[in-house]
Task: inverse folding
């Protein structure tokens, strides 16, 4: 029994397997007799830890669940702000901006629903927040008992429109960064999920741009820009959402060394032209004060 | 594809109001695949056969194959956008209805595209094509609506281009870079949409019912950019 051949066979079969679970099952089935005669643990080990779909599927589900967690977070933030549910300040969002925030809310919900359905379709268990009242598979995504978006009375998000906008901006930028950080974990997946993940993240960036533009004219100052300048936060208390956003090096090339319209590109342009990833641990630390 | 149809509609609006400087550009819907293949100077099937002994006609730039072709394609797109914003900025003060706030951000848009363009050409190194000659005659820079509609069209294309290119890269370490540029293009588009018409930053002309932006194939993007490029290109080995 040539062990290398078995592994090669498995590898070749692997390439032709379309779906993760079916692929692994069939690979295991078709090599059952050979593997039985050889060192089973090693062969199976290579299936699961080297090239395996088992690991890939689990990774994809966990990444999608992380994204789902952030969508629950954002959807509930906006749903409360739009004077449904537990919010009592019906005039928080001015009429001129209301259509925009309704669109943001509906798209957060659309992504939430897509992610949940995709996770279920892959055989995973979709994330639910703490104190979640409904059936995760079909239930209401609005779960006010799960969140305190004032962060323990630190931000008056449902009383002050200014505070609401500042926190909204920080959340939108954080989600863009969170999604950028986990994207590499999806590149090995054979389905379209990586592309769809990017498509969703572009919409998050559109939302951030909208919130920032509203802030730019409220209360009537030319700040901020629709893009992230250096690591500038909307308020000092939200600085930690922007750590690392002042990176200027991409694939080993310092953007400030590249030619601009005159001389080289500025530090400002170099940081604005690229959104920066933020790791899961940092993101979880940032959202923790807003969870119940 | 609804969103893409909207992009084409927007393009036709733009091109229709651009004094008909380029009549053939006004019917972009009809350019489709046939026009694109003509632009590439070959058919897809032949491209595969020719790849081993590639011949490019004189006065035509061959953009390479695989990841090199993809990077050159994105480089061309950024070149068109950088040229568009450089011209917009140069005539900015006269550009109808431009506010101080818009003028400030217009320079940012230019600099961001320059950053993307210069990074891509640096990453390509010796595999970079010579800089293409752009054609901005379809743009009416003195008209605010026309210029903003072009901004939106280019930015939406760029979001879709980076997103669509990601899965076509053999070297997947490029994916994070493409993604962090795609989100900035999305910020640009949302901004331009909102200053043209409030609360349209991610409306149904660009975002689908799953809350997703576009992912576009290189063919679709290059077909849309064709009216803005003078250089003859051989893109037979650009991943489809």
Result:
């Amino acid at each position: 029994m040539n062990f290398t051949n078995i592994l090669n066979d498995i590898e070749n079969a692997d390439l032709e397997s379309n779906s993760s679970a079916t692929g692994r099952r069939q690979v295991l089935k078709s090599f059952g007799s050979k593997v039985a005669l050889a060192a089973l643990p090693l062969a199976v080990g290579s299936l699961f830890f080297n090239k395996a779909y088992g690991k890939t599927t689990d990774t994809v589900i966990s990444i999608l669940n992380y994204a789902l967690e952030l969508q629950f977070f954002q959807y509930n933030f906006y749903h409360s702000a739009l004077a449904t549910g537990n919010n009592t300040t019906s005039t928080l969002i001015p009429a001129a901006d209301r259509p925009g925030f309704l669109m943001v809310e509906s798209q957060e919900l659309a992504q939430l629903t897509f992610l949940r359905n995709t996770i279920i379709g892959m055989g995973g268990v979709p994330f639910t927040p703490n104190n979640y009242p409904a059936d995760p598979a079909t239930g209401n995504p609005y779960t006010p008992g799960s969140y305190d978006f004032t962060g323990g009375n630190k931000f008056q998000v449902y009383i002050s429109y200014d505070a609401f906008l500042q926190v909204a901006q920080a959340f939108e930028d954080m989600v863009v960064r969170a999604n950028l950080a986990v994207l590499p974990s999806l590149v090995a997946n054979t389905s379209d999920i990586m592309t769809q993940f990017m498509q969703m993240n572009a919409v998050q960036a559109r939302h951030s741009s909208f919130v920032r533009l509203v802030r730019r004219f409220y209360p009537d100052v030319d700040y901020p820009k629709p893009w992230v300048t250096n690591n500038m936060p909307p308020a000092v208390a939200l600085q930690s959402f922007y750590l690392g956003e002042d990176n200027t090096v991409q694939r080993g090339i310092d953007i400030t060394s590249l030619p601009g319209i005159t001389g080289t590109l500025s530090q400002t342009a170099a940081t604005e032209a690229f959104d920066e990833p933020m790791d899961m641990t940092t993101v979880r630390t940032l959202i923790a004060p807003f969870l119940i | 594809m609804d969103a893409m149809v909207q992009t084409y509609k927007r393009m036709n609006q733009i091109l229709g109001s651009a004094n008909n400087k380029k009549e053939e550009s006004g019917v972009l819907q009809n350019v489709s695949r046939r026009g694109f293949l003509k632009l590439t100077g070959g058919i897809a099937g032949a491209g595969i056969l020719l790849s081993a002994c590639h011949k490019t006609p004189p006065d035509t730039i061959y953009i390479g194959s695989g990841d090199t072709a993809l990077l050159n394609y994105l480089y061309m797109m950024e070149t068109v956008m950088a040229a568009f914003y450089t011209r917009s900025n140069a005539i900015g003060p006269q550009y109808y209805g431009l506010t101080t706030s818009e003028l400030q951000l217009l320079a940012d848009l230019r600099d961001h595209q320059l950053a993307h363009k210069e990074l891509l050409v640096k990453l390509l190194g010796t595999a970079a094509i010579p800089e293409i000659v752009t054609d901005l005659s379809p743009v009416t820079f003195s008209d605010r609506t026309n210029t903003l509609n072009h901004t939106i069209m280019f930015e939406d294309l760029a979001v879709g281009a980076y997103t669509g290119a990601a899965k076509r890269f053999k070297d997947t370490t490029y994916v994070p870079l493409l993604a962090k540029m795609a989100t900035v293009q999305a910020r640009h588009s949302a901004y331009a949409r909102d200053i043209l018409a409030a609360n349209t930053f991610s409306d149904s002309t660009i975002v689908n019912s799953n809350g997703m932006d576009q992912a576009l194939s290189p063919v679709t993007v290059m077909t849309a950019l064709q009216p803005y490029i003078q250089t003859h290109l051989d893109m037979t080995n650009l991943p489809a």
About this structure: Confidence is low (pLDDT under 50) at residues 1-53 of chain A. The beta strands of chain A are 249-250, 253-254.
